[in-house]
Amino acid sequence: MKFFKNKLLIIFSSLLCFSCGENQEVEETRKYDDYAEFSFSDVTTMYELEGDHYYIEFYSVTCPHCENLKTSLFNYLDKYKEDKVETKVYIFDAHHSESDAGKNVRSNFKVKPENFVRENLIAEMKENSVSSVSDTYWFSIPSLYEIKNGEFVSLTLGSTDIAKKYSELK
What pLDDT, in 10s, does the model give residues 90-113? Predict the structure, then answer.
């Protein structure tokens, strides 16, 4: 009986400690401004940034999904600064869609047709080797555009998929 009680106590203690670690949320204290060297100010230059191959994350400080993604993004940017990864990621504040700044940013992109299928528009950008913002479709934030040799390569949407992409980038 004593053996059973000891085992039960060990199992219960382990579960309690494990659940504490799982439920703790760490608030991200770093800010986008801390990474200003990865930022650019004119969205129309997104295909003309330094480097042959890079990504651009569009975010807004008011976006809860972007807030969830910050730790993955900032950890990746820190690795880039430490030369632990090679692929540069730029960041661009697209602002809230209802703000004047947000409307201005979005007005530079190609207008989506009615009843569009997102995957078809992304495929269209790939097929057409898009190299200008006016030929690029805007979907949402957060979004991660991949650019290679001044042309659109891919688009990753949503905080979960973008965080996964950061874990895969080298």
Answer: 999 999 999 999 999 999 999 999
3-state secondary structure of 39: strand
Q: CA 113 → CA 28, 94, 143, 145, 166, distances in Å? A: 38, 21, 20, 20, 31
User: Which has the closest alpha carbon to 162: 63, 27, 17, 51?
Assistant: 63
Which residues, including other chains, have CB under 8 Å from residue 86's CB and lie 6 or more apart? Answer: 80, 170
Spatial contact of 35 and 91, defined as CB atoms under 8 Å apart: yes
Whether the predicted model's global pTM rises above the 0.70 cut: yes
Q: Where are the beta strands (DSSP E) in the chain?
A: 53-59, 88-93, 143-148, 151-157
